[in-house]
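Q: Predict the bound structure with heme C.
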Amino acid sequence: MKNLNFSSTFRSLTFYSVIFFLHACGSKTPPTDTSTVPEVNVVIDTKAHSDSKGVGKFTEVKLEAIDPARADLGKAVFATKCTTCHKLTADKFVGPGLAGITSRRTPEWIMNMITNPELMMKSDPVAKKLFEEILTPMANQNIGDEEARNILEYLRQNDNK
Ligand code: HEC
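A: Predicted complex:
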C-alpha cells in the first residue's frame, strides 16, 4: 500500500512537471517595449549618411545660417564635456571622430544622441551599430536642450571649415 501511494504521488508529480514545462514554453509573451526598433536584416554602414532623426524628443530642428555666438557657447561645453572622448577631425578617439558629422546625421539625430545616448543606443539602429562596433557606451553628460543646440552649431561650424 505504501509503495503504491508513493508511485502514484510520483506519477502525478511527473504529470504536473510536464504540464508546468509545457505551460512555461507556451507562455512566452512577445516583447511589449515599443520603443525598441525590431531587428532588420539591413547592413548599416555607420560612416554613411543617414536620414534618420533618431529616437528622442527632438523631432524637428530648424537650421538657419550658422550663428557664431551660439557656436562659441557650444565650443566651451564641447571642450569640457566631449573632448575626453571625441576629436573634431575624422580620427577615432574613444568615440568616432566628429568631422563631417553634420552631413552624416540629421540635426535631430545629433541632438537626440547628445542629450539621451542611452535611449539612442537602445533604440536607434545607427547608434546601436556604433556601440556594437566600438563597445564603449557614449556617456550621458547631462546636456540641456539649449546646450545641445549650441554644440550642434559648433559642429556645423567645424564642418564648414
Ligand atoms: C565617455 C566617452 C564619451 C563622451 C564623454 C562623449 N561621447 Fe559621444 N560617443 C562616444 C562613443 C563611444 C560613441 C559611439 C557610439 C556609442 O558607442 O555609444 C559616441 C557617439 C557620438 C556621436 C555619434 C557619432 C557618429 O559617428 O554618428 C555624436 C554626435 C557624439 N557622440 C557627440 C558627443 C558630444 C557632443 C559629447 C559631449 C557633450 C559627447 N559625445 C561625449 C563616447 C563619448
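A: The radius of gyration is 25 Å.
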